[in-house]
Amino acid sequence: MSMYRALYRTWRPKTFSDVVGQQHITNTLQNELKANKLAHAYLFTGSRGTGKTSCAKILAKAVNCENLQDGNPCNECEVCKGIDSGAILDVVEIDAASNNGVDNIRDLRDEANYTPVRAKYRVYIIDEVHMLSVGAFNALLKTLEEPPEHVKFILATTEVHKLPATILSRCQRFDFKRIEPQDIAYQLNKVAAGEGFTIEDEAASLIAKVADGGMRDALSLLDQCQGQSSNVTAQLVSSVAGLTGHDHLFALADCIKNKDCAGALSIINDLHNSSCDMERLCTQLIDHYRNLMIIRSVKDCAGLIVCTAAELKQLEAQAMSYTLEQIMYVLSVLEATSGSLRRGLNRRVETEMAFVRLCTENLDSSVDALLKRVAELEKAVRTGAVASVQPSQTAQPEQPHAEKPKPKELPEGELNCWQDIVQELKTINMPLSGLLIDSTAAVSGKFIVIYSGNSSIGALLKLNNNLADLKKAVFNVTGAVYKIGVKKPETAEPTPDPYADALPPPPPEPAQEESDPLNELLGRAKQSGIEIKIN
After folding, report:
1. Rounded-to-integer distance, Cα 179 and Cα 458, Å
2. Burial 447-471 (b: 16+ CB within 10 A, else e)
3. Span 508-529, pLDDT tens digits
4. What is residue 462's DSSP assignment?
5. In b/e form, how buried is each residue of 377-412, taking b as 16+ CB within 10 angstroms?
6. What is the Cα–Cα distance from 378 to 376, expressed in whole angstroms?
7. How far apart, in whole angstroms, are the C-alpha atoms of residue 210 and residue 238?
8. pLDDT for the residue numbered 330
9. pLDDT: is 87 or 308 the higher one?
10. Are the C-beta atoms of residues 52 and 42 closer than 8 Å to each other?
11. pLDDT, tens digit (0-9, with 9 covering 90-100), for 240-295
12. What is the DSSP letter of 272?
């Protein structure tokens, strides 16, 4: 009975054509192999599970393949089979995390001087090369710069910023990008068909989202799901990955919006009892609010959010209940909480503290929160609005037929705060504010009359929502509701010239000669080409 192999090992790419989502790299390597223009050292960098080690092994086989096919190793010759099985020792894979000392690199340098036994090149694949010590990098430097003709180096790392500049300058660098979710989902369906089990499209999309651009993580999660059922569903993926259901995310976001602290803590309690990891919950909420931010910021956001069509509609509906400022504030609190969860002793308490802070604004003492509250108070004072107060247990119930406050009235005559209204209008309707910048206004009965030299103001107020925006600006500044009128500019009479009497009278216009009918007839005949002789 053969031992079971994990899916990510079984489905490891054997040719460049099998590598998913890195065509910009595989095409370049294939062209170099076909043209026989190979570099002596390569550097593969990128996040985990994107194909760095797989491409390194494929390249090691391709440079030694006896029957290269369109830049791909044939996987049929003795060299290819020997490298795959480990029988040919000319291809050496070194884990720099556990072999990072100077002595290890010195042994490698001495060994590189020997010619290969079976293959054409000795290939050294150094994985996690950033883990090498400073002395090891120095020992590798000279060999990496001018290696023997029969040696190729392939370095792989997830943290390229930790490599010395002297190493970077001696390698041909390839940056592996995160694999697109749709490419991962396509590959998962291909693997499921090859292994004889089924996977729902929604489940494949969910795995691709959790994998965060790493094919190895996606295949590992698929392996776990396939071990429980031959039909992989989205619910099964959520259960295996320890994900919070989408309903809980929407419910928690509604609690934050409605300042429902008790409801949020109750949901967190249920999730904690269900063994939900609080750090994962915080990460999911950050992703959730990131989606809300994208929806509020971008018109066509379908390509920037990985979700089903039904979930996108639900996200759009919830995003409309938030302002962009509120979303950004929640994201900043969740980001800070995510860092605290890694350092805190009790993750549940850290999460509960964050939700209490989000649901109770007066507990937030940050500068942004204080400025927001001051702005709201200033607006309430201007408009005469009264903040609603939750009645305490001993408070008397509100009278059902309480008299409504009378609308605020402004004194008759010139409106001194008109320029403040124009400035407030700038935040609502900037073009209209620009047209009114040189105008004045006065209060007359139930009207605010605008005086402006621009005769088109009245017509412009009738377009779109200009009149409603102006009334809103008036209310925000004064707390009063008035109708808007426009005083048309009077046509100015021409100013008399004070020097008119001192100037000499203009010369008389020359008298026009009376037209002669005969001459007029001769002129017309001449224009028509007719010659008339008069005896």
Report:
1. 57
2. ebbbebeeeebeebbeeeebeebbb
3. 655 555 556 666 666 666 666 6
4. T
5. eeeeebeeeeeeeeeeeeeeeeeeeeeeeeeeebee
6. 5
7. 10
8. 92
9. 87
10. no
11. 876 555 788 999 999 999 989 999 999 999 988 888 889 889 998 999 999 999 99
12. H
Q: What is the C-alpha to C-alpha distance for residues 89 and 104, in angstroms, rounded to an integer? A: 17
Distance CA 528, CA 362 (A): 97
Structure tokens at 91: 């291809």
Read off the pLDDT of residues 33-49 as tens digits, 9 standing for 90 and up.
999 889 999 999 999 88
> Which pLDDT score, from 0 to 100, does residue 189 have?
92
Q: In angstroms, rounded to a whole number, what is the distance separating the alpha carbons of residues 150 and 279?
A: 50
- The 10 Å Cβ neighbour count of residue 13 is 17
What lies within 8 Å, CB to CB, of 261 at 6+ separation is 255, 355, 356, 359, 360
Give the number of other CB atoms < 10 A from CB of residue 126.
Answer: 26
User: CA-to-CA distance for 65 and 53, rounded, in angstroms?
Assistant: 18
For 56, 90, 96, 165, 217, the CA distances from 100, given in Å and listed in that order, are 19, 21, 5, 18, 26
Q: Which residue has the tokens 């190895």?
A: 216
Question: Between β-strands 447-451 and 483-487, what pairing exists: parallel, antiparallel or unpaired?
Answer: parallel
What pLDDT does residue 533 have?
Answer: 60
Classify residue 226 as exposed, middle or buried by CB count within 10 Å of its CB (0-12, 13-18, 19+): buried
Q: Give the pair of three-digit tokens for residue 76.
A: 């049929």
Instruction: Report how far apart, in Å, the C-alpha atoms of 329 and of each of 282, 351, 372, 376 are.
Output: 15, 16, 11, 16
DSSP state of 314: H
The three-class DSSP label of residue 450 is strand
Closest by Cα among 534, 445, 524, 438 to 489: 438
- The dihedrals phi and psi of 295, each to the nearest 5 degrees, come to -65, -40
Show the tokens assigned to 490. Answer: 């009077």
Please check whether residue 75 is in contact with residue 15, taking contact to mean a CB–CB distance below 8 angstroms: yes
pLDDT of 192-236, one tens digit each?
999 889 999 888 988 888 888 889 999 999 999 988 888 998 888
Residue 127 in 3-state DSSP?
Answer: strand
Which one, of 28, 129, 127, 17, lies nearest residue 73 by Cα? Answer: 17
- Name which of 349, 332, 198, 371 is nearest 265 in CA terms: 349
Residue 159 CA to residue 47 CA, distance in Å, equals 8
Report the distance separating Cα 357 and Cα 481, nearest Å: 37
Q: CA separation (Å) from 209 to 180, 199, 238, 242, 444?
A: 9, 15, 11, 14, 62
Q: Would you state the structure tokens that stand for residue 38, as one six-digit string?
A: 């190979």
What the block records as the tokens of 528 is: 């028509």
pLDDT confidence band for 478 (50 / 70 / 90):
confident
Side chain identity at 50, as an amino acid letter? T
Length of the chain: 535
